[in-house]
Amino acid sequence: MAENMTKKNQASVSKFLNAIGDDHKRRDAKIVAKIMKRVTGERPRMWGTSIVGYGDHHYTYANGREGDWMLSGFSPRKQALTLYIMSGFSKYRSLLKKLGKHTTGKSCLYIKKLDDVDLEVLERLIEQSVEAMKAKGA
Hints:
This protein is α+β, with helices and mostly antiparallel strands. The protein is built from four helices and nine strands; from the N terminus they run βααββββββαββα. It has helices spanning about 15-20, 25-40, 95-100, 120-135, and strands spanning about 10, 45, 50-55, 55-60, 65-70, 70-75, 80-85, 105, 110. The chain has a seven-stranded antiparallel beta sheet with strand order 1-2-3-6-7-9-8, covered by helices on one side. A two-stranded antiparallel ribbon has the order 4-5. The mean pLDDT is about 90.
């Protein structure tokens, strides 16, 4: 069975965030970091070389594959700020309508810049996702 290559590590989150070259992306990433820390109550940790994660979640798929991942997290990617909303989006349609300009993947929320979204709605979305994950036993 394939092992997840992106793992929690001891790399410095603050060094990672401060090394973001684009001023606007760095500012947005630091804002999201504060929101996630406040919502999760968890210390940020690096997952791999480019993901900042909060909390821990052990998962088991129907096929028996198991692994560890974060409750929530984000990555300041080149194309967009990617937020990991681990509970998915099916429960949050009304919040997504109020959020502002964004796109989604299975568990990824893509935002070009935080100026395009309502930060209070974003915080509620992260909070509800974290609560759902904790209710699942994360």
